Amino acid sequence: MTKALQCKVIRMETLAEKSLVEKDLIDLANQYLPDNIQLGDAISVEPLSGDAGFRHYYRLATEPSVLGVSAAPDREDWVAFMRVSSLLSSLGICVPAIYAADLHSGTLLIEDLGDKLYQDVLIEKKGKPEVQQLYQNAIEALHIINCCENRPAWLPRYSDGLLRQEMELFPSWFVKKLLDYSVNAEEAHLISFSFDYLVAQALDQPKVLVHRDYHCRNLLHTDDKGPGVIDFQDAVWGPVTYDLVSISRDCYVRWEISQVDKVRDEFAARLLQNKIISEGSVASFPNWFECMSAQRHLKVLGIFARLALRDGKTDYLENLPLALRYLLEACERVSELEPLGEWIKSTLVPRMESQPWYIDWTEAGNEVTVW
């Protein structure tokens, strides 16, 4: 079979799969949408851009509009999605209502909260008072999430194994596969020591409900419901600083360091008021925060490299320098992590400088600094 014919067959299969998904969504809509949603004579389905995962999104031309979501059942845990959705909704968090779900085909119909991502609004309103209000709303919602009183039995814990598994993406995907660098025994020991320290600091923190990806691409600006929260299916019971790191050291927009420190301290004071942390924990909070930032951005560097190399999503490469900046800034603030930071600067950064995506890490994110 020629290469051209192979491509044609693949394209035909893709079109067939697409029409089948649209048919499944329309069938679900005709059978299960509530009466207050008007279907019209015929439902059209508009594909929308996807995300970093395996999900595909569609907007159904109902009144009001409805979103269809599709992913192979072996690629997405839709039961977890529905469980976390119900939990967040019970706390008063604005999440999309789930109208119907066919777990066999991996298709869902959910409420359409619009398409005003925080990222777009923040950049548009850069330097204006609306930015502060958006973040105040998002942080207030985060306090509500963190105040979830009990861990449901089905909700995973952010365990030692999971924390290490995430960080291992850094040496395996970012260092070895993207930078084509093999660490020696001494460097492997340094990485292992750093991982041990970060795991210990994470496990030492009080545990709360953690969204796990609470940033400007997973928050929607709604008119009157507070921030719409999406992409929550990977939620865990884990370290209290995690989601605050996600939003204040966001890989797509940046805060000034002084603003990060201010919000971090205010957040800790509110946690103390809510009796989530003790007075003794307040002093540890800055170090916990920096260590959580290092852990998260080690993971992010690995994930973005994997998305580019394995999944062909090369747009994520342009976000690597800002993630690197966050990692190195955290290493500079934690003495136990200084050797890791110095090794990255002396050994890995020179290899990055030849990459087309690289910009000076000390300048990364300046163009998207919104607060």
Key structural traits:
12 helices; 5-stranded antiparallel β-sheet; 371 residues; disordered N terminus; alpha+beta
Quick description:
By secondary structure, the chain is α+β, with helices and mostly antiparallel strands.
Outline the structure in words.
This protein has 371 residues and is of the alpha+beta class. It is 51% helix and 10% strand. The protein contains 12 helices and 9 strands. The strands form 3 sheets. Strands 1-2-3-5-4 form a 5-stranded antiparallel sheet, with helices on one face. Strands 6-9 form a two-stranded antiparallel ribbon. A two-stranded antiparallel sheet has the order 7-8. Helix 6 packs parallel to helix 10, helix 9 packs across helix 10 and helix 10 runs antiparallel to helix 11. The longest helix has 31 residues, at 279-309. 36% of the residues are buried. The model is unreliable at 1-17 (pLDDT under 50).
Query: Looking across the biggest beta sheet, what order are the strands in?
Result: 1-2-3-5-4
Q: SS-based structural class?
A: alpha+beta
β-strand number: 9
Residue share in helices?
40-55%
The biggest sheet amounts to: 5 strands, antiparallel
Beta percentage is: 5-15%
Mean pLDDT: 92
Distance between the termini: 55 Å
Q: Number of DSSP helices?
A: 12
